[in-house]
Every structure is written in C-alpha cells, then in structure tokens.
C-alpha cells in the first residue's frame, strides 16, 4: 500500500486501524526504517494480545533483519516488559500495541537502547520520512554482510524478578486483592509477578482477548472500573487494581470501592522512593497533578520539578535531573531504576508494600496524600482554541490574587484553587482540570471556567 502516514504517525508512537491505515507490508518497512534510523545491530520486539499483533510484529522483525539487525522476539508482553527487555539487554525495542484503543487499532511504541523514548524529535520523524518514501518507491537494497537473525526469548520471569527486587515486600501482611486486567496484558504479567506474594488474588478478565469483550481496557474512564468496584465490595477485598490494555498503567480502587486519584498514588510512591534513597532526590510531576504531590515531595526531603503533560516531557526531565521517580495524572509512573520508563506494575507493588506494612485500610493510609478536591479532566469541543484561552485569561487578568503561567496551556492559581486549560494536539478540544480546597469552591470555579470555554 502507498502509505498516508499523516494520521498514523503520532507525536510519540504509531497508531491506526488495521488493515485500513496500515498492514504487515507497511510494518516491514517500519522495521527497516527503525534499524536505519537507530543504526542498531540488534533489537528486541514484543507484542500484545490483539489479533493483528503477532503478524505485525513478525513483519517488523523481517524488515529489521533484512537491514542486517539481529532480532530478539519476546512474544506476548506488557509494554513495561518490553521496556525491561530494552533496558536489561541494552537494545532498541519495539512494542506492538494500541493500548486501550478498540480492537481494530494497533500501533508501535519504539525506544532506543535503555528504553529511551523515540518520538517526533528523537527519530520518529525520520522513520516516517523513510517509510513514506519506501512505500512509494520501494526500500533501497542494502547488502549487509549477512541478514540479521531472528530468535525468540522469554523475559517474563526476569521482568518479574527485577521489579520485585525494587520493592521490599518482606513484611507485607496477607492481603485480598482484586485485579481487573480488562482482557489485556495484565492477565499475562500479574500471575507471575504476584506468584510468591502473600496475596489472595481474585482475577477478573485475565483471558487475553484483544476484542475486549467485557469493557474497554481504559481504567481512567469511570465506566470501565464499575465491575472492579463492585467485586472489591462483594469480596471484602483490601483493594482493587485495574490495568489498561498493554498494562503499563495501573489504577487503584480502595476497600470502599472508591477510585483513588493517581495524584495520591504519585505522592505515596514519591514518599517511598525518597525514603529508599535516603530522604533526598528529585521527583518529576506534570502540571495537572494535585497540589498534594509537590507538598509531599518537599515534606519527605525531595525536590519537585513541574513539567508539561506527556510522557516524552516526563522522561526528558527524569534524565536531565537524574530524578528518582516521576508521576502523571494519567496513572503513568516512571522510575529511575526502571531506565526512567513507566511501569504501572512497580507502582502497584509499592501500594501493596505500603498497605501491607501497616494495619490501616487503604483509604485511611492514603488520606495523608489526598488533601484537596479535583474535577478530573473535562473536555469541551471548541472551534477556536486560542481564542477561548485568550478570553479566559482576559476574564481573570485583572485579579491581583491570581497568578498565571503558560508552561502547558493556561494555568491560573489562587490561594484556594487552581485550574489549567490545555488544547488537544489532535482534536478541536480544550481540556480543563480544576482543584480546590473544598467542594463548594471547586464547583464554582469549574462552572465559571466552563462557561467561558463554551460560550
């Protein structure tokens, strides 16, 4: 197929409908281009449980091998398991997944050796240019000394051992834990990681099924954790964990069946990682995490660094500052000891260690990390994003009690609240997040800003 990559190659990955937007021959070209851009002699490739994933991954491997690279196929894996392989083997890697998107989608998340991200500014633009050219004119013949080899390797046990070596779970009391894998890759990784823990594991939707027969594998959408919440209550469980389709994000439900803010998890893990590093270190957080996050970081001896929304920004700041940990509102959690990459599984193990190391229920444990009330992200369709942002700034601009910054969209901060409004890069949307010291203030600020956005 002659490729139209304008809708396929995103800021951080490749993602589109199979076979309408891309197919195995195109994936083969991506494999060849990936090797040319990274100048890799060897790479590692993994894939999720989507029906199209094995074929696309195999085609990518053929393209890479044809350019002279040795390919290690690790087969079914979570995205953070692919990052583990990239880090432990010190190889560039490619993960075939479309995360929580519907079954007809698939994609590629690519990284350099040591799980360093490949995005538009770090190689993805060059890869796109090559694939567009080759899909029209054919890939140029290269005559390496010999084609690369393609071999298989299982990394699941080593991945689990690495994570378990980063969290002290020796003093954990027995816990009853419900895990909703959403028919995604958590159903593959959780049984191995949890195998020797003092956990009564209650699995939900562990069967690998890329058609997602039970619910969308996106735990940040409240409708997708309803089953988990009900099961936690029915079982009298200590907590529930929900993973997204490629199991790199983890969402937590407490013993009351209430969803836990990812900001609270970020604060909890930050405190634990700071303690593990002698009470000092830098922690990265994006600008729409709760006020609680930088407060807890400072209280535990750390230095908070605020950044834009998006994993490429988090990873760049992690590397620049030598940060020990980073967290986002979207339930992505990044660890220095995991090659600055994100792993929801490691965050989940920290939650188990914190809860199991004391006797209080999870809701009580997390109260110290969840100090304010937040709106969550509210999306509004608008025709003129820049115009609406200017109108919002003008409406609040003459108030002495408000400060502004434009690190990512527009953030307005008062002593009792803050809000951020950001434009989507791919849709005609403005995204609003509000936090306040109490529910009444939150409601008032949220409604006032939404009126300005939607007028």
TrEMBL record:
The keyword Metal-binding applies. It holds the Pfam family PGM_PMM_I. Its EC number is 5.4.2.8. Keywords: Isomerase, Magnesium, Metal-binding, Phosphoprotein. The keyword Transmembrane helix does not apply. Residues 377-450 form the Alpha-D-phosphohexomutase C-terminal domain. Residues 7-133, 158-257, 267-372 form the Alpha-D-phosphohexomutase alpha/beta/alpha domain. One of its GO terms (biological process) is carbohydrate metabolic process. InterPro entries: A-D-PHexomutase_a/b/a-I, A-D-PHexomutase_a/b/a-I/II/III, A-D-PHexomutase_a/b/a-II, A-D-PHexomutase_a/b/a-III, A-D-PHexomutase_C, A-D-PHexomutase_C_sf, Alpha-D-phosphohexomutase_SF. It comes from the Bacteria. One of its GO terms (molecular function) is phosphomannomutase activity. Its cofactor is Mg(2+). PANTHER family: PHOSPHOMANNOMUTASE. Belongs to the phosphohexose mutase family. NCBIfam families: PRK09542.1 (NF007088). This is Phosphomannomutase. The lineage of its organism: Bacteria, Bacillati, Actinomycetota, Actinomycetes, Kitasatosporales.
């Amino acid at each position: 197929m002659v490729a139209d990559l304008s809708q396929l190659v995103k800021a951080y990955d490749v993602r589109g409908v199979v076979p309408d937007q891309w197919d195995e021959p195109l994936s083969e070209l991506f494999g060849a281009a990936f090797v040319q851009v990274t100048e890799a002699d060897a790479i590692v490739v993994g894939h999720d449980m989507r029906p199209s994933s094995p074929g696309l991954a195999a085609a990518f491997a053929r393209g890479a091998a044809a350019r002279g690279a040795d390919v290690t196929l690790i087969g079914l894996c979570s995205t953070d398991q692919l990052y583990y392989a990239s880090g432990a083997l010190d190889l560039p890697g490619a993960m075939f997944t479309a995360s929580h998107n519907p079954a007809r989608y698939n994609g590629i998340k690519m990284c350099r050796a040591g799980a360093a991200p490949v995005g538009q500014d770090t190689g993805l633009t060059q890869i796109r240019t090559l694939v567009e050219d080759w899909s029209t004119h054919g890939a140029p013949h290269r005559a390496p000394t010999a084609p690369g080899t393609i071999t298989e390797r299982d990394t699941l046990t080593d991945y689990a051992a690495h994570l378990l070596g980063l969290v002290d779970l020796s003093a954990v009391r027995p816990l009853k834990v419900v895990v909703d894998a959403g028919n995604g890759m958590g159903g593959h990784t959780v049984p191995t990681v949890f195998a020797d823990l003092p956990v009564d594991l209650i699995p939900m939707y562990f069967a690998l099924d890329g058609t997602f027969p039970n619910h969308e594998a996106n735990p940040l959408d409240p409708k997708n954790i309803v089953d988990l919440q009900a099961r936690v209550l029915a079982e009298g469980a200590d907590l529930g964990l929900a993973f997204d389709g490629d199991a790199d994000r983890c969402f937590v439900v407490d013993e009351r069946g209430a969803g836990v803010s990812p900001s609270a998890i970020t604060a909890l893990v930050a405190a634990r990682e700071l303690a593990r590093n002698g009470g000092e270190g830098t922690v990265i957080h994006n600008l729409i995490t709760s006020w609680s996050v930088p407060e807890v970081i400072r209280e535990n001896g750390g230095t908070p660094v605020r950044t834009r929304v998006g994993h490429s920004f988090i990873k760049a700041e992690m590397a620049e500052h030598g940060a020990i940990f980073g967290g986002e509102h979207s339930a992505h959690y990044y660890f220095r000891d995991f090659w600055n990459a994100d792993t929801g599984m490691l965050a989940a193990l920290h939650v188990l260690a914190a809860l199991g190391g004391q006797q209080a229920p999870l809701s009580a444990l997390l109260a110290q990390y969840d100090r304010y009330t937040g709106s969550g992200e509210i999306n509004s369709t608008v025709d003129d994003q820049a115009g609406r942002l200017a109108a919002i700034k003008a409406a609040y601009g003459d108030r002495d009690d408000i400060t502004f910054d434009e690190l990512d969209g527009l953030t307005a901060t008062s002593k009792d609240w803050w809000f951020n409004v950001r434009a989507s890069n791919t849709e005609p949307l403005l995204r609003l997040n509000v936090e306040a010291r109490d529910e009444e203030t939150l409601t008032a600020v949220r409604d006032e800003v939404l009126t300005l956005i939607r007028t």
